[in-house]
Amino acid sequence: YVEENLGVMSVGFLLSSPDDAVIWRGPKKNGLIKQFLRDVDWGEIDYLIVDTPPGTSDEHLSIVQYLSAAHIGGAVIITTPQEVSLQDVRKEINFCHKVKLPIIGVVENMSGFICPKCKNESQIFPPTTGGAEKMCQNLNVSFLGKVPLDPQIGKSCDKGQSFLSEAPESPATSSYRNIIQRIQEYCDQRHFQEEKSN
Predict the structure, then answer these.
(1) Which of the residues in the chain have pLDDT under 70?
(2) Half-sphere exposure of residue 40: CA atoms within 13 angstroms, side-chain side
(3) What phi and psi, each to the nearest 5 degrees, are found at residue 79?
(4) How far apart are the first and last CA of the chain?
């Protein structure tokens, strides 16, 4: 456990060196995914978050299939404001629709930079086609929020510390908390509806 309420499992923990490359084909990757889901002692959990690489690949399909009996709450899709990222996300949204995986919503990461001194916002990655919010409107998908760039996020990650605890006054912390609340509300509502139908 990283913290009392946060457990993590990663293929990185199984490598002899952090610089080792993982070069595995589909069957071996799928076997490891199944092993992580089946053999890791997760204990009693409220949420299982699976971080996947961008795109729509074997890993995504395997996870959806392996977890189908567990009634997956849904997918949170992360993007950045640029069109090149949004193109991939549109494919991921289409994938979710095809495999009947509910979409909790989309988060726009690296959405502007708020200067810690003057509090002015600069668009480092301008949303040339309207960004995630416009895409969500066009595709009728929930938009969960924007997370601005904050160098402290990277520093906290490098140190293995909670960014929310390390930078409680950051605009990014406020964004994270709002997004987390929206995800929790979605999951609570879905759980209530499942209980009601049973």
Answers:
(1) 1-2, 198
(2) 18
(3) -140, 175
(4) 34
Quick one: three-class SS letters along 30-94? HHHHHHHHHHCCCCCCCCCCCCCCCCCCHHHHHHHHHHHHHCCCCEEEEECCCHHHHHHHHHHHH
β-pair partners for 106: 77, 143
The DSSP code for 16 is S
Q: Residue 1: what pLDDT?
A: 66
The confidence score (pLDDT) of residue 85 equals 94
The owner of tokens 């499992």 is 9
114 CB-contact burial (10 Å; exposed 0-12 / middle 13-18 / buried 19+): middle
Q: Measured between alpha carbons, how far is residue 88 from residues 54, 67, 77, 92 in Å?
A: 7, 23, 10, 6
166: its two tokens: 């390390």
Full 3-state SS string of 95-164: HHHHCCCCEEEEEEEEEEEECCCCCCEECCCCCCCCHHHHHHHHHCCCEEEEEEECHHHHHHHHHCCCHH
User: At what angle are helices 83-98 and 131-139 packed, to 10 degrees?
Assistant: 30
User: Whole-model pTM?
Assistant: 0.89
